[in-house]
Amino acid sequence: MLVRTELLPLGPSGLPRVRVHTPVGSAVAVWRGDLDNAVGWHHIEWTVDGDILWGRNTRSTALAEPGVREEAGRVLLRGRLQLTEDGAAVLEMGDSQVLFEVGSPPPPDKAWVEISVEADKVELYPYPL
Prior knowledge:
The chain is mainly β. The chain is 0% helix and 57% strand.
């Protein structure tokens, strides 16, 4: 996913943070690239340190379109969820995909969902094309 990032002050955890502006919204996330290059346009890979826990941090959404936003120190990722054969799930957010482990009970397959994650558990890894 091609995004624009702006460097923010260190968070309470001491991790480098950026505000990431995507085609489907913006939020704060941890930057895992070179800090000298944190500002600007980047192709990024999303990594989320957290499982899908249906009914706790993941719920169905009536809004059937991808989205990224923040709310009360958390990042909310909205997309279509696809379960995999090995017990994981892939959240499709526009032209980007985020891999998750799935807790019990499993969410419905091919459903539009919103996943709420602590901002410090959402990381962006830039990569060159």
